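REQUEST ID: PR-0412
SUBMITTED BY: lab tech R.K.
PRIORITY: routine
TASK: structure prediction, single protein chain
INPUT:
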Amino acid sequence: MSGLDFTIEELLANDYDSVDEEFLEDFFVEAKEHIENIEMKLLELEKNSSDPEIINSIFRSYHTIKGLAGFVSQLLIQKIAHTTETLMDLCRNSEISATKKIIDIILLSTDLINKICQEQSLNKNENFIKTACSHLEYIQNVIENKGESFDIEAPLELEELSVQQQVLKLGEILENQDILDEEDIQDILEKQNENTEMLFGEIAVKDKKATPKDVVDAIRTQTKVNTNEYMRVPLSKIELLTNMIGELMITHSVIEQSAINKTSTETNSTSSNFLKVSRITKDLQNLAMNLKMVSLKSTFQKISRIARDTISELDKNIMFITQGENTEIDRSVTEKILEPLVHLVKNAISHGIESERTLNNKVSQGLVTVSAYSKRGFVYIEVADDGKGLNTEKLYQKALEKNLIDPNRNYSDKEIQEFILLPGFSTAEKVDNISGRGVGMDVVKTEVQKIGGKLDINSQVNKGTTFILKLPINNAVMNGTIVNIDKSNYIIPTINVKQIIQPKAEQWIYMQNKQSMIKVREDVIPVIDIWRIFDRKKTENYRPELIIILEMEHILKALPIDSITGRQEIVLKPLGEEFKNLNFFSGSSILADGTVSLIFDIENLFKMDEGAF
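STATUS: complete
OUTPUT:
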C-alpha cells in the first residue's frame, strides 16, 4: 500500500505460529496493560493536550509494545505500534498538536491492537489486515501533512470489527468439526460481503453447507467462557504471602512443641489436630512456592538473542545452543541471574572461543552451550565453550602485577583459575563494547551469592571452560535434620543425610593417633574435622555418640554429632553481611523452641581437606 513500508502479503506470510504459547500469553497480557495505560492517558490528554509527561507516557507504551511484538513475531501489532509511535513522536516534538482528532486516531490504534490480543487469528484475517493497513496509511498521511487539513474517519467501525471477529471464529469452529472446509468458508464470506445483513450461520444453513443444529452447537462453543483464566499478581504480594507462610510455619512449630511437652501425644486430640494443621500449612507452603515457579524458557530465549547479536557483531563462526529450558526455578531468581548469564555468554563468545581453531586441531566452528538441570533441591546452569581454556600462567602473572595475590604462596591450578573472580582482575588487552573474560566477573560472583548460589569454574587448556552456577530452586523452605554438637543445635539438609550410625571402637581408623576415617560395612569414609569448622581446639575426652553419613554426588563423608534433636520444615534466613566469612554455613533458621540455628553448607564441608578428627 502506498505510504507504507510493507505489504498486506508480507503480513499474511508472517509466521505467527513459531513462538512458544507461554511467551505469547505473557506478551498479550503485558500488551493489554500498556493499552489500558494508553487509554487512561489519552483521556487525561483530552483535558490537558499540552502536558509533555502524558504524551511521553503514551509514546513509551507504544515503544514498549513495538519492541515486545517484534520479540514474539507479532508483525501486525509491531507495525501498528511503530506507525502510531511515530505520530506520538511528532506530538512530543510539538510538530503536531494533540487535538481530539489525533486522539481518535491513537484510540483506534489501541482498539486494533486490543482486538488482536483478544483474538489472535485476526493476524491471518485478510479483511482485518486490510482494515489495519488502511488505518496505518491514514496515519502516514497525517504524519506527512503534519496534521493539517484532514478529517478523521475510521476505515471500519468497531462494531464491524467485532462481527468480522465472530464470523471468522464461527467458521473456524465449523471447520474444526469437519462440517465446513476452507473453500466453503471463503464462499460464505464472499456472499456475506454482498449481503451484509445476513449472518454467517444463516448463509451456511441456506446453502445447505451446515444444519441449524451444527450452527447452534458452534455458537455455543464460541460463547463458552474459558474457565482457566489468569490474573497478573505483583511479585511483591506473592513474596509477602510466602514470607507470612514461613512465619506461620515457625510459629506453628513453636506452639506444637510447647503443646507436646504439656500433653499426652498418644491419645490427646490436641496432637491429632496439630498434625492436621501441619499438613494444611505444608500444603499452603507448597502452593505458595509453586506460584513463584517459572521455567527458564524466557531467560534462555533472551540469552539466545543476545548471543546471536554478539556472534554477528564479532563475525565469528560459533554455534550457540541451549538445553534444559523447561527447568523450573523461583521467579525472583530468574530475574537476578539474567545479567550474570549474559556476561558469561558474551565472554565465552568473545574470548572463550579462539579465532584460529585449526591451529589446535579443532573444527572451525566453535560451540557455546547454556544448559540447565535440577538436582537435590538446586538448579544448575552451565555456560560452556570448547575454546582455548584458561591460561593459568597468564592469570597468575596478571594477578601478581595487580598485587591481588600473595607472591610467597603456592596456588593450585583451581585457585589460579578463580583469580578471574577477584575484584579488579582482567586479562583484556583492549576495551570494547563486549567485555573480556574477567571484566566484571567479581560482579557475576557477587550477584550469584546474593541469591544463595555459588559459582564454580572448570577449565582445561585447548579444551574449553565451563562456568557452573548452583542456584536454590527456591530460597524459602527446606527439610532439615537438627543435630546437637557440643551443646549447640545445627541444621543439616535432610536431602544429604544417607545414614545415622552409633560408632563402635573397632570401626575407627586411626592415622597419627587420631580418628580420621570410619569403616561402615565395606566403605571407608573420611571424617569431617568439626573442630576446624568451629575454629577451636578439640574438647578433651570428647567422644561423639553418633555419626551422620553425608552424601553428595555419590561421595560419602562422616560428620560426628552428639545427638539428633529432630526433623522439621525450616524457613531459610540468609546470613547477614557480618557473617559472610562463615564458609561452612549457608544460612540460619528459627527452630521450634524459638532459638536460632545455623545451617551447614554441605558442599563446602565436602571441599575440606581430609584431616584427622
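NOTES: Residues 241-292 form one domain.
REVIEWED BY: pending
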